[in-house]
Design a protein that fits this description.
This protein is an alpha+beta fold. The protein has helices at 63-73, 120-126, 131-138, 171-176, 181-189, 196-206; strands spanning 5-12, 16-17, 22-23, 27-29, 34-37, 40-41, 58-62, 86-89, 101-104, 108-115, 143-149, 151-153, 159-163. It has a single domain (5-165), classed as M1 Pyruvate Kinase, Domain 3. The strands form 3 sheets. Strands 4-1-8-7-11-10-9-13 form an 8-stranded mixed sheet. Strands 6-5-12 form a 3-stranded antiparallel sheet, with no helix packed on it.
């Protein structure tokens, strides 16, 4: 990872009507520094408890994946449009492995816990029916991260790779289902702490061998 950095820091701009309830997907860049605690960024909010928590405290999305979508859709994908907290540049988020750890700036330390599982509110936000399903199929879904060490974050902060596990299960592969039973067993045996959903999926796929 070379010259990886935070491009923007995004927090809640306004609550919007969603398919079933209000949604906090409308996030936009703010000037830092922004404090990041165990449950996420100061000034941010999750309406649905399933969208937050310790293992989903910070949502990271890459400029490179946003550019891919921009070319595909013929429209700009400005920071925060997908509801991400950190828009990064130079960081291979889709290629990140479950359990990968990053230092952001001086003190903030994040661990990749799993994929963003998009819902109908993303399709509503984009104005494209079924977009959340297409989003998932590409594997370019971004990283849901746990905060291992609290800290401040601002645009321009460097991102340093601290830990890259030896298993081969990346976020892209996990989202697309492009994993073999052997790879999932390797993940289970890696010693990386797993969320219940990732462990359940890994165990199911590994048992199919």
């Amino acid at each position: 990872m070379t010259d990886a950095a935070v491009r923007t820091v995004n927090v809640l701009y306004a609550l919007r009507d969603g398919y079933f309830h209000r949604t906090a997907i409308d996030k936009r860049p703010v000037r830092g520094p922004v404090r990041v605690g165990w449950l996420g960024l100061a000034g941010d909010q999750q309406v649905d408890r399933r969208h937050g928590g310790l293992d989903r405290a910070v949502y990271v999305y890459a400029d490179e994946d946003a550019d891919w979508w921009s070319a595909r859709l013929g429209r700009e994908i400005p920071p925060g449009l997908f509801g991400e907290n950190l828009r990064t540049t130079g960081l291979d988020v889709t290629g990140a492995r479950v359990g990968e750890q990053w230092r952001v700036g001086d003190d903030l330390k994040l661990e990749v816990r799993g994929i963003r599982t998009p819902c109908d509110n993303l399709a509503l936000r984009m104005g494209i029916d079924g977009f959340h399903l297409a989003f998932l199929r590409t594997g370019r879904v971004g990283a849901m991260c746990r905060v291992l060490s609290e800290g401040d974050v601002r645009a321009g902060d460097a991102i340093q790779s601290l830990v890259r596990p030896s298993h081969q299960v990346t976020l892209g592969r996990l989202a697309r289902g492009d994993v073999t039973p052997e790879q999932m067993q390797e993940l289970l045996d890696s010693g990386v702490p797993l969320t219940s959903s990732v462990r359940t999926k890994a165990s199911r796929v590994a048992a199919a061998s």
